[in-house]
Amino acid sequence: MKILFLTLALLATTAQAADIKESLSSPDGKLEASFTLTEGVPQYSLKHCSKDVILPSLLGFELRGNLKAENLIYEGDKVRKEDWNSCYSFAENFEFLGCERSSFDETWEPVWGEEDHIRNNYNELLVHLKQKDTYRLLDIRFRLFDDGLGFRYEFPANQWLGYFVIKEELSEFALAQDCTAWWIPGDYDTQEYEFTCCKVSEIKEHFRDNMRGNSSQTPFSTSGVQTALQLKTPDGLYINIHEAALVNYPCMHLLADCEKHSFRAWLTPDAQGWKGYMQTPCNTPWRTVQVAESAEKQLASRMILNLNEPCAYEDVSWIHPVKYMGVWWEMIAGAGSWNYTDAAPIRLGEFDYSKATPNGRHSANNERVRYYIDFAAEHGFDALLIEGWNEGWEDWANCNKDYVFDFVTPYPDFDIKALNDYAHSKGIKLMMHHETSSSVRNYERHMQAAYQLMSDYGYDSVKSGYVGDILPHGEYHYSQWLVNHYLYAVTEAAKYHIMVNAHEAVRPTGLCRTYPNLIGNESAMGTEYQAFGGIKPGHTAILPFTRLNGGPMDYTPGIFENNLKDWCGNNSWVNTTLCNQLGLYLVMYSPLQMAADTPEHYLEHMDAFQFIKDVAIDWSESRYLFAEPQDYVIVARKAKESGQWFLGGVTDEKAREFKIPLDFLGKGKYIATVYADAPDAHYKNNPKAYTIKKVKVTAKSKLPIRMAEGGGFAVSFELCK
Asked: Cβ distance 476 to 506 under 8 Å?
């Protein structure tokens, strides 16, 4: 169902010196956004229930070039170099040309998602400006939803501004109060950090201890943070600053002014230090300020998706959710290797790896892969990821090699055709792995041939990776050139009916609505870090507020063996309980869900593994029941196909108890199968202690749940016959 209300009011005016103020209300009337033009300087502000959320904040840019078009000096047919490399303010001396107002209300159906229908309802204000002395036009479009504000800059085609270069975007987010912030440092190349929680005024103080691996001489050495930035006001309002529809533009970070409790956009630069290369007509991504009265409402917001364009594909029948296993964790943990020539002894611990590689430690061999295929097929999975199948892993990472992989040549012990045929005979599809080692030009050089190989063998999904420093030299993972590359890979894959799960790519901004074959991303510290020293409990209770705000994450849950030292000599410890790992299948939403551990570890706990087999991965309805950033999240979801309800939650290092209302259930009596931490469970010293019980419940019941330190729970509901 789609309903469109459009009210157009074009208020044409002549150039004038008088100040301008235009206001906009949300559909429910609780939010009010204002645009002001004071002495030629554009600003915006935001209120919730008449109380300031964002104080008047600057809008505009600093652009490359001479300030006044008529003063440009040409040498031959080129602008004089000193004029071209100088900069001017595109944030002042504007006149108001008019504005347009409209309202919009629709309900759209995602290809996959947390619900099967999403309402998109907003009021819009489009402001037309002209800079007096350069004659250059700028439009600013505001959309105000019940759950927040989005605004973007639009550059109409005009003779005074065709091609232009952005030095800085000056968008500000001046908070009305000193909020609590959950943040990670503004690294241009990775989001793989644990989150810090402190007041905005304290970010600079905490920054040095949290910035690792970034040696660039930028303001991020003191106080830069990444989006999505989760905030909470002293009086309990939840605010999130992010961006939506990041296309042909550098990723936005935020530079903090801790004393003023304010942030300013800081775009990822290119190798020369410039931020963006543009040609009119064009627009920026949306800058977003979500506002919610509770943590649960913040998690339920779909504003980022709504600010993206509708699906770009006419046929989406080939796009589908995937539950998969992978020849992956044993290499991450150190029991095996991606490298065919790595002949070091394989570290098997106490487990029978009789089907493991006969050639040193190389895991992606014919026997081992067949073993995984058999296990995945027996237990109802859709696909099997295989890493390390192709030539090139001997010297792939951080070697600054242009030509690394060709993405089509398998190692001698990986028979791609025979294994593919075997998998298909068992009802399993293989998932391709393309690790680019950040040699992006090399990937684009081979991309069509690699996708064609996938198409020939019936692979319909690929996990891509971008580990290491970007080639060409000097570019960053989040600069404009790389942002364009990631989308190019997705749209090219669509031509071959291939779904993409990109790791180390730019963080999602809702583009999965427009390009739903972008079925997953990493772009955050995922489960692999449990093998790199461990992750503190609470990490998965902040990611739904931050990283998942823009789209699903391939978090790779389901690790049942905590003690990696006894298993394979890795000194890391997985800092969760087993039931926490089950709860992640509800908390960490993704249409691409992995059972990440090895078959041998699942065989030891088949009663708990049953939940991973049962849980759905595509939903018709989701309800966030209890939540607080970095503390706990509890969510109930209804499976799209079967209508079955599932419930799950995770907590931080504190044990917590809840009585969970089950009013989301329909009429009738249900059998609830409850997977819970045992009374003596603890993520450090007793992580595998769990109980499984069945209880009869109705929609009027309240289910008592205790989560241990670092723990969680999961529940499946079946209607009594």
From this structure: no
